[in-house]
Amino acid sequence: MRNDLTDKMSLKEKFGHVRNLLSCLYQIDRTYFFLATVRLLLDAVKSALIIVLSADILGLLYVSAPGEEIMRPVIWLLAFSFGLSLFSSVLLNEYIQPKRDNIGRIYDGNYAAKFQQMDYSLIESPYVMKLNERIIRANNWGAGIYSVFWDFDAIVSGIFKLVSSVIIVFPLLKIIAESGNVWMYLGLAGLTAILCLLTIGIAKANASYQQWFLASLDELFPEEMRKKYVSTSWYWVMRCISGDYHFIKDIHLYDGYEMMEHYTTGNMREGEKQMPWVSVTEKLCGKLGFLRGTAESLITLAGFLISAAYALLGAFPVGDVIKFASAFTNMLSGVQNMAYQCNGLIVTARRAASTLEMMNIGDEMYRGKLPVEKRLDNQYEIEFRNVSFRYPGTETYALKNLSLKLHIGERMAIVGMNGSGKTTMIKLLCRLYDPQEGEILLNGVDIRKFRQEEYIRLFSVVFQDFKLLSMPLGENVAASLDVDEKLAEQVLRKAGLSERLAKLPEGLETWLYQDIADDGVEISGGEAQKIAIARALYKDAPFVLLDEPTASLDPLSEYEIYSGFDAMVGDKTAIYISHRLSSCRFCDDIAVFHEGRLVQRGTHEELLKDEQGKYYELWNAQAQYYT
């Protein structure tokens, strides 16, 4: 990962990041930057016309010209200013701002889509986790991707200011040159150079400070300190601001105000004591801001003093004082904008580089090309053959030398203590990961050869950490915008939600939770489990997998749910994963896992006969719940 914000980079690399970011945004909307440039050009033309016509009006007033002659440039000034301002405003509000917002949404949406579609094995890899951490940290600075638009506007505006000002000032410089006063000409050139160097110097100091701060961030602000004094504080502050009702009721009931104060404002105050360098950097920022403001004031003052001096010396008419001073100020202001915002654009592009790197990550998992045979009889057999697997970034095997066959229509329980490899086996079965050793076969063919999108249709899975979304109930069940209402209602009734469904105000259109919809309904943990089971039934896949979705329930309640689910599954292949044994009584086959290995296999009665076995140990430890 070469795009770390703390890396020292060559000028070529810096502008490479800018080019990549602008190219990415251009691909989203190919007209935005053109329209933005047109608007900035109109604004520059308007400013130049105001300078020129204002100077003409002042000159006419100075020589007491007739009113009719004075009104002519006044009318032109008003007409041009109004017309150009109106056109610029229409461009900004009707086209540019909506496009800007849309680009930001699509940019964020593309990142979210990439993260969702990425290989699951990559998402949990140390590389992607570190990259994502950098993205989150980078996006916490400034206005995120929207800084690009403001930096672009400032830079292009600065270029137009510089060009238009030079065009206006050039005739006046010619007058000064022809006057024969070399010292006056050299003095003007020298002062201009000094002010430009001052502006660029302050901008460079600001850029150096930002580079130092980013390079020293990990040293000044270690990860533990960030989490303790910033991340934790802002996490709870934002949850309170957003009115997260899921936890506020507990704060009320348990009088947790003092605890929350500690984790919000208390942590922030303590952070100020533990991180004194923060106030130092804030003061440095203030000094740089003061220097920038001083430079701006000096530029304006110098412009008026120089033009006034030349007018008094007779170098050009008094009316040109405004023209020269304004153009001179505008020119140096353009240089200042470009100096500051070029650095700003480079920093923004570097921050966005991690996001672009994430979006350009290619899939490592082979997607396969063979179609999965569609069998009406669902005669599928899956075999694990000498499969070993360890998670990315670890040396310990989560599964070791696993050999196991799953036959159609059977009920299998996979049991074992937490961390024994049960869930890992399911992740491999569903091709969330590929094993490092061995192979998994579907009807004798390595599953890696099948089209992945077709292969995963064979499985309906309810994980322990299943999630329901703040969306309508029907879409939660169908996992799609296209809902078969008859089927959705049927599986919800099978899952035991007939009464609850009848009471919902909008039926399947009822939104779950109130995160998005104010009239959303809150559901209990048991109801959520039933909806998750209904979702598995709706998919109607040949293999149904339950990976401890009832782990939060007591063993008897778990047994009741498993018994009911077993009846719903019918002739499908069902696999029950649990560290508790409530599912074993009605299963044809039981596989016992321990420390990543398959240590026993058989029926309930067969396994209980082995008093030295792991199953016997687990059963007797839990027997009080099943007798």
UniProtKB/TrEMBL annotation:
Its EC number is 3.6.3.-. One of its GO terms (molecular function) is ATP hydrolysis activity. Keywords: ATP-binding, Hydrolase, Membrane, Nucleotide-binding, Transmembrane, Transmembrane helix. InterPro entries: AAA+_ATPase (IPR003593), ABC_transporter-like_ATP-bd (IPR003439), ABC_transporter-like_CS (IPR017871), P-loop_NTPase (IPR027417), Type_1_exporter (IPR039421). Residues 382-620 form the ABC transporter domain. It comes from the Bacteria. The chain crosses the membrane at residues 40-62, 74-96, 159-177, 183-203, 297-316. This is Lipid A export ATP-binding/permease protein MsbA. It comes from Acetatifactor muris.
